[in-house]
Amino acid sequence: MNKINHSTNREMAILLMLVFLFVALNIQEEDYVRYAIRAGIAGIFFPKVFSLLSKLFLFIGPKVHFIGSFIFLNIIFFLVVFPVGLIKKCFPHSDNAFIDKTFTKEDLERPY
Questions:
Q1: Digit-coded pLDDT (tens) for 23-43
Q2: pTM of the entire predicted model
């Protein structure tokens, strides 16, 4: 696990501040702006306050990375990309984006 230091805690305070600002913008609530200001000030002057939250995020981060990169992208592929490919194969059309040309040896030796 990564070592927790003041820099990591300040980054966690900035993240929490941005989350509060995002929530404030979406639900139009001024209280969350105040929370964001408090989190920013606490992150500047008392970064040790965010050490537990930093440890939690550094513990959960690799697990979320695995879920996000492997499972989520496979779901997107099989729910979006694969059906679109099948539909395109079922309905052929004359607009071909590919170049119908047989390449010679000179084309490959001097591509520009």
A1: 999 988 888 999 899 988 988
A2: 0.55
